[in-house]
Amino acid sequence: MLTHLKIRDFAIVASLELDFRAGFTVITGETGAGKSILMDALGLCLGDRAEAGLVRAGAERAEVSAGFDLQRHEVAREWLRERELDTGDECWLRRTISADGRSRAWVNGSPTTLADVKALGEMLIDIHSQHEHQSLLKKENHRHLLDGNAGLTTDARLLTSQWQQWQRTAKELTTLLREGDRQRERLALLTHQRDELNALGLANGDYEALEHEHDALANLGTLLQNGDIALDRLTESDTDNATRSVQQALKALEGERHRHPKLDAVAELLDSALIQIREGASSLRHYLESLDADPARLTSLEDRLTAVHQLARKHRVQPTELPALQQSMAEELAQLQRAQDLEALTQEVKALELLYLKTAKSLRATRQKAATQLGTDVMVRLQMLGMSNARFDVVLTPLDKPAAHGLDDIEFLISANPGQPLKPLAKVASGGELSRVSLAIQVVNAKHSPVPAMVFDEVDVGIGGGIAEVVGRLLRELGEYAQVFSITHQPQVAALGHQHLRVEKFVQDGYTSSRVRELAHDERIEEIARMSGGITITDETRKHAEAMLAST
Predict the structure, then answer these.
(1) How far apart are CA 405 and CA 128, in angstroms?
(2) Order of strands across the sheet with 391-403?
(3) Domain boundary residue among 271, 305, 339?
(4) Taking a C-beta distance cutoff of 8 angstroms, is the pair 425, 434 a contact?
């Protein structure tokens, strides 16, 4: 549920804070007062496109925040938890636009992408505009509306996934039947190349180890010579070596150490150095003794390195890349070997087709029941909206071949007058009739929507009198199921709101601004009288407005 809206330096709004309640809220005001600004601000929080022109003249940036109560919205809470954005029962969406057009978005104080804001916003609020009926002219939207109304969206997605898997496997089978010879040639080549690499048995890191060992054996003479020289300099020279030099230095300092603490420190360092020299010499001696001039081993290493380089040149890769190449070959071989099993692949395609058809037939049966119910529900609303002679039907027409969305084409058909055949909505001549059909469908669908808040932006345009009152009662009825907002010019609709907000435009210090006030009972009478009457509000119009409020 939407609980708060904060706007600063947005369009002609300098600063505005609104608190909202559950139920049905109406928003009214003179034409041009800025009612659409509220929707634009809310849309911005929900991820709509940002434009520099939305920043109030003279301001550096615009800022909009929307607060939502998520106590009864576990789906949104789970979405936030998955992204480590959950802060409890309340959720805040915040958006800023700078004067140069750059925008930023936050969810519960954490920076986030517009894609995430849009995804979350679709769970929190649903905006129905006065032009929404245009989407009804597109037949592909009818299936989505039916599935959403019947709670079949997840089932439809599962069916699409099954169809895609069936089609992918069927394509593999077709490719095998068409290109079997080429694939078998590729399989034979890869098998030979993989066997060569397997025989080489080169694992990650092996090439580097081979090079190091070969380098040591190939340069064994030089290594032994220089190692002996180093030992001689460290400990084994009879005339002069590092050990003897350090020992002599320690002996020279022995009688002087008591003269200053620093000499003690120097002596300790020399003691440590003497220990390190002896340990280093010992390790070097053991290493040199372990070296073995093994011509056979050297030849073996050279042969193996030659084989590595030959295969690397053959496959045009670096020697260190051969293990990765071997792995990729194994993966491609596994796929080709699977594809070569024609019988198994054929059986898999049949199994996937049967699985798809089972799900599709079950979904078809559920959709048919849901279509009947949706048609009945919409008919009831159309009669309430003054189209008592209209016929509305949701028709499922079998397709020539299965599709990702199922076995049927789904379309809304209507006959507005007696004796006329059912026709697609796109062929309905009257825009007013189409607007009423759209409203009826929206009202019916909204009851089944998981979204806890809905905005109807002037969906009652072109409707007046008793029909306008019916629209108001339908929206108020929806307010029992969800939080509903309606921007309206109809006094009959405004009188039925649980909460009434008025948008006003004023001039202050030479700047035009817009503000929103919640109206008390007496103020509502004046506003509804203004909406009902002409330029002058009379006592009669006030009494009529009071009667309209009293009838809710």
Answers:
(1) 25
(2) 391-403, 406-415, 423-424
(3) 339
(4) yes
- pTM comes to 0.61
**Are residues 283 and 309 both part of a single domain?**
yes
What is each CA distance from 90 to 74, 93, 110, 485, in whole angstroms?
12, 10, 14, 20
In-domain check, residue 468: yes
Task: Please check whether residue 96 lies inside any domain of the structure.
Answer: yes
What are the distances in angstroms from CA 278 to CA 232, 242, 251, 282, 438?
Answer: 12, 9, 18, 6, 94
Q: Which of 313, 339, 365 marks a domain boundary?
A: 339
* φ/ψ of residue 17, rounded to 5: -130, 130
Q: How far apart are CA 50 and CA 40, in angstroms?
A: 10
Q: How many domains does the chain have?
A: 3
Decide if 223 contacts 291 (C-beta within 8 A).
yes
Do 324 and 310 belong together in one domain? yes
Residues 219 and 94 in one domain: no
Residue-wise pLDDT for 353-363, tens only, equals: 999 999 999 99
Helix, strand, or coil (residue 9): strand
| Residue range of the domain that includes 550 | 520-552
Same domain, 47 and 188: no
Q: Domain check: are 460 and 542 in the same one?
A: no
Helices within 24-152 (DSSP H only): 35-45, 74-82, 114-124, 133-136, 140-150
Which residues lie across from 485 on neighbouring strands?
A: 25, 455
26-57 pLDDT per residue, tens:
999 887 777 778 888 998 998 888 888 889 98
Return the structure tokens found at 517.
Answer: 């006030």
The one-letter code for the residue type at 352 is L
Provide the b/e sequence for 291-317 (b: ≥16 CB within 10 Å). Answer: eeeeeeebeebeebbeebeebbeebee
